[in-house]
Sequence to fold (363 residues):
Amino acid sequence: MGKSFLILFFCIVTLFGQSKKYRIHTVAFYNLENLFDTINDLERNDDEWTPNGIQNWTNEKYRQKLKNLARVLSEIGTPENTNTPTLIGAAEIENRGVLEDLIKESKLQQYDYGIIHFDSPDRRGIDVALLFQKKYFRPTSFSSIPLYIYGDSTAVEKEESKESEEEINTTVGNNRVFTRDQLLVTGFLEQEEVSIIVNHWPSRWGGEEVSGKYREAAGRLNRKIIDSLQQINPNAKIITMGDFNDGPYNKSIKVALGAKAKKGEVPEFGVFNPFEEMFNKGMGTLAFRDSWDIFDQIIISEPLIRPDFASFKFWKAGIFRRSYIVQSSGKYRGYPLRHSLTEVGFSDHFPVYIYLIKEVNSQ
Fold:
């Protein structure tokens, strides 16, 4: 099975009744916060992320950022799983090239990650992508699904928000709001078919009242994708993950997508959000004005929470928060340690993850 395929012995009697062996895969999502290279791309709004830009983004800083991110990704899911995540959804990446540089870092290179990425029409040129360990996941289809939304361009004046650096952009002619596409990937996790949707929903520019309708539209598109997969296979195992720019309690998640906080409330063809309970306990993946929220979530379809473990099922979820990715002093003490002009940090978001486990037949 190889050293990176951990067999777990669970001794929690209340959960499994007896000690059993399980295979485990970690599925993670991380907003990489402005993972830009240093090259000035005339087709992207990346001027600030160049050596001559306001971020003074040098090759040395870029390489340090890659090392920082690779360290985080290599440790998500440990110690329960000795392997790095099998599947990693990523957001705020400039292009495929930065991902190719990332997976070549020493902390990740040995795991032989593949990349699925498409360019999105987002004004800043930031995209979403999926990284996958080739020996455990075999993609069979993938597509980039655009989100067509339109708005009043006069109603998106800059307002301080949790994502105040990001602008909602519209065209003069039709007021289309350009944002990230939703990435759909279907493939086989070992011998089991799984579909993954990677998201980075429209920002909160203009405030929640103005921009909320855009994320509700993103939620409806997400639900439409899930419905289409379930029409093909009613037992489809679907994972939708990303930076939703909304908390588990917002209409885009609760109504448009229809996510439930408790397993017992999830109907057939429904979806379960394990991060709502974490939010209710005061946990968070990002902070604004000392208020924590969970914009980064991994939401799963009903077949993944069924009670048997004869095939891969959801075990538990978590927020990855090691001390080295936390601001240790100053005004933002306790916040995610992000990049500044004086320090190459990690991200303004903490990554999230879930475990999928499957019972090993002892016979």
User: Anything to note?
Assistant: The radius of gyration is 20 Å. Residues 1-15, 153-168 have pLDDT under 50 and may be disordered. The longest helix spans residues 208-232.
